[in-house]
Design a protein that fits this description.
Layout: H1 3-12, H2 14-34, E1 39-49, H3 59-68, H4 75-82, E2 93-98, E3 104-111, H5 114-135, E4 141-147, H6 160-185, H7 192-199, E5 203-208, H8 226-240, E6 250-254, H9 262-275, E7 280-284, H10 292-296, H11 304-309, H12 314-317, E8 319-321, E9 326-329, H13 338-342, H14 345-355, E10 359-363, H15 372-377, E11 382-388, H16 394-406, E12 411-419, H17 426-430, H18 437-468
Helix pairs in contact: 2-6, 4-5, 7-16, 8-9
């Protein structure tokens, strides 16, 4: 994973990260509010050696000051502090340190009350000095109080900002862990890279989620939106250049499992190829669950199965659909032996005959449930795998690829269907094909709207000029009941 993939994962999981950061910050704030309020006061003393006037202290004074630090929490010092009348030591903490490069020693006291913290710091310094001086009465080293502690006005704990930042950091780490675990453990195809790796072939196109590309079995094919139409045209172009040296004339479209959108994709692609002026025939070879007849609104009870049985002539069941000469061969009735029919020599001869004059697109059954697609893949010039974003499993796609490879099928490429066009993961999951719909709509509809606007302005100007001129005398009106010749 490179840095670009890292940021793509962050973008795709930005809502997860935002929730984790928010929860972490709130947790830090709640934790901070539950902590007791504490105040810290500090008093200062210095260690001197008799006969030496240096305030910075000699090496002997600094060494002796460092040795006095453990006294602050000794039982002897605490007993002396406890003997002080009116001093509350409950919940209090004491600490001491030597200022670097000097003989100054500071004593800090932390307590729930500010005044008590100051009194405790002053008492602790005096008690420490007394204990230290009493330890070696003959020594020429002495601890002297220098500066008394003042009652603090601001609590030292809890630090709300620091706790919130800690919560943000922990929440961010948890969010990153969730984001990358989702990416690593996700079993579904969600990126163009997943599709290409799973299919073992290049990407031919990424079809966006669009209301005009319905996948329901009962819905009719619709005119695609400008955005969806452009991706279909892009698929048409990429398919044309998928094999320049040996261009395929018969192409089967299949998927690993049902309901991945292959029928909708191949139906719209067939219309786009016909619109480009190339003769094309669309064959619905999914004899078990045919889709194209209802999608194009034609009678599908007689079709491919009857042609293969020799019951009808091919010309009698080819239906012209659309406005550009697309021919549709429906599936017909479901036979008792679909696999045998699709793998028959008669099917091969039919495909070869149609390919002489037309480009043939075959809507094939999914690979995993039945063996029909592998038989068709061996009979056509090339096969295209359609995978559904967020629905197709990576392992299922790999099994479908291996099954097609087992019959030496020529996989031309893969189509990632249903990529998100907005919201979380649009750029990441769409692989760059998911520009916002408004940009497509404005780009492709603006010229037409501009022409309509110019035509409207021209008509208004003509009408305005005509109304400004005097009305010429009308010739003799036709008699009642007669008809004027236009």
């Amino acid at each position: 994973m490179n840095i670009l993939d890292f940021f793509k994962v962050l973008r795709a999981n930005r809502l997860v990260l935002l929730v984790c950061l928010t929860v972490g910050a709130l947790a830090g704030l709640v934790y901070s509010l539950l902590q007791p309020t504490l105040y810290t006061a500090t008093s200062t003393g210095f260690v001197t050696v008799q006969g030496e006037a240096s305030i910075s202290g000699t090496e002997t004074a600094q060494t002796r000051a460092q040795s006095y630090i453990p006294l602050i929490n000794s039982r002897t010092v605490r007993d002396r502090i406890a003997q002080t009348e009116g001093l509350d030591t409950r919940g209090a903490r004491l600490s001491a340190e030597v200022v670097a490069g000097s003989n100054l020693i500071t004593v800090s006291a932390t307590a729930p009350d500010a005044t008590n913290a100051a009194n405790l710091a002053n008492t602790a310094l005096v008690a420490t000095a007394e204990v230290a001086n009493n330890l070696d009465p003959t020594s020429n080293v002495e601890v002297t109080a220098l500066e008394d502690a003042l009652a603090p006005t601001v609590p030292s704990s809890p630090n709300h900002l620091r706790n919130i930042l800690y919560g943000l950091a922990i929440g961010g780490l948890i969010g990153l862990a969730i984001a990358f675990l989702r990416r690593m453990l996700d079993v579904n195809v969600r990126t163009t890279t997943d599709a290409q790796v799973g299919a073992g072939a290049g990407l031919l196109g990424a079809i966006p989620q669009d209301k005009t590309l319905k996948a329901e079995r009962t819905s009719r094919i619709m005119e695609p939106s400008p955005r969806a139409a452009e991706t279909i045209r892009q698929l048409r172009t990429n398919l044309r250049f998928a094999a320049v040296d040996d261009p395929p004339r018969t192409i089967a479209f299949t998927s690993s499992n049902p309901r991945e959108g292959k029928s909708t994709v191949v139906g719209n692609l067939a219309l786009a190829i016909a619109a480009a002026g190339q003769p094309v025939i669309l064959i619905d070879a999914d004899l078990r669950r045919p889709r194209q007849a209802s999608q194009f609104g034609v009678e599908g009870r007689v079709g491919l199965s009857e042609v293969l049985n020799g019951d009808v002539e091919l010309q009698d069941v080819l239906h012209p659909v659309g406005d550009d000469g697309l021919l549709l061969l429906p599936a017909g009735r479901t036979p008792p032996n679909p696999s045998e029919q699709l793998g028959s020599e008669r099917m091969r001869q039919l495909l070869a005959a149609l390919a002489e004059t037309h480009m043939v697109l075959v809507d094939a059954p999914p690979v995993l449930p039945v063996t029909d697609s592998t038989l068709l893949a061996a009979a056509v010039d090339g096969t295209v795998l359609v995978v559904r974003h967020g629905k197709t499993r990576k392992d299922h796609l790999q099994v479908a690829r291996d099954m097609l490879g087992g019959v030496n099928a020529r996989v031309l490429g893969v189509v990632l269907n249903g990529t998100p066009t907005s919201g979380v993961g649009a750029d990441y999951y769409g692989g760059g094909y998911s520009a916002h719909g408004d940009s497509y709509d404005s780009y492709y509809q603006a010229p037409r709207q501009s022409r309509l606007a110019r035509s409207g302005r021209r008509a208004a100007r003509v009408a305005r000029d005509a109304s400004a001129q005097p009305t010429p005398p009308h010739p003799e009106a036709p008699a009642a009941g007669s008809h004027a010749v236009g």
